[in-house]
Amino acid sequence: MNSNKKTAPVGVFDSGVGGLTVTREIMRQLPNENMVYFGDTARVPYGSKSKDNIIRYSRQIIRFLRTKDVKAIVIACNTASALALDVVKEETDIPIMGVIVPGAAAAVRVTKNKKIGVIGTEATIRSHMYSKVMKEMLPGVEVIGKPCPLFVPIVEEGFAKHKIAEEVIDYYLASMKESDIDTMILGCTHYPLLRSRIMKYLGDGIQLVNPAYETAMELKKLLQEKDLLNEGGGQEGEDGQACANGSYEFYVSDTADKFKQFANSILPYDIRTTQRINIEEY
Ligand code: DGL
After folding, report:
1. What pLDDT shows up at residue 272?
2. Which position has the higher pLDDT, 269 or 25?
3. Cβ–Cβ under 8 Å, residues 230 and 212
4. CA 143: distance to chain centroid?
5. Is the CB of 47 under 6 A from ligand 1?
6. Residues with Cβ within 8 Å of residue 165, at least 6 apart in sequence
7. Which atom number of ligand 1 is nearest to the Cα of residue 45?
């Protein structure tokens, strides 16, 4: 572990670019934190994979992030949060959190009629994790889940603003629009990149919840509780760069160029270095 735990980076991972929506929020709310991001671009999508594989991938990524001396880990992927968090948490001696509990907490606060929709990957929806968590938080809540697997390639391939996205949104979300939900969770970290289109399609009657905001708030609480919050300026990582106060390093398991371009289009700061690594070695 880093000699000064507070300045050690936070590890963040996802199957690809989706977790950058969470990273962006952590950068905004916790500008002093250093971060190491891993996007598993060689193995995206996770949403159609089995639980065994998602656990195996998550373990490998956690082993990789630990080589960077991270002080805590955020699983910025709903699929891995739903299928692997409980298992890897038991095996990891640093704080580790996912996006589902923060997202669920935000949704139960927002709903007035106790009818909540959740969209996510096949694996996330099949796990019923959002439903389980929200039923504990708000007894009597009704939850309607809908897998939207094509949203991930649309985002990964840069088609979020293309009219093709509109047709797919209509295909998946017509039933949500006709239902009487008043709140809908964007239960995949790729989906906030389609947020404005989804919002326009569903209209004012349905509030959208992006778990990224609450996840960053929960991370802050977790770091405070463990006395790990970086209150001072960040430190420059080996390949990192100073941005705001924090320094950020990005790693991927496939070609770095596309990822870098994408990251630069959604993050508040330009990322200079993205490195490809062989995750199967971990
Ligand atoms: N962005 C991830 C999630 O939140 C995974 C999407 C995928 O790889 O299928 O579920």
Report:
1. 80
2. 25
3. no
4. 21
5. yes
6. 154, 159, 194, 197
7. 8
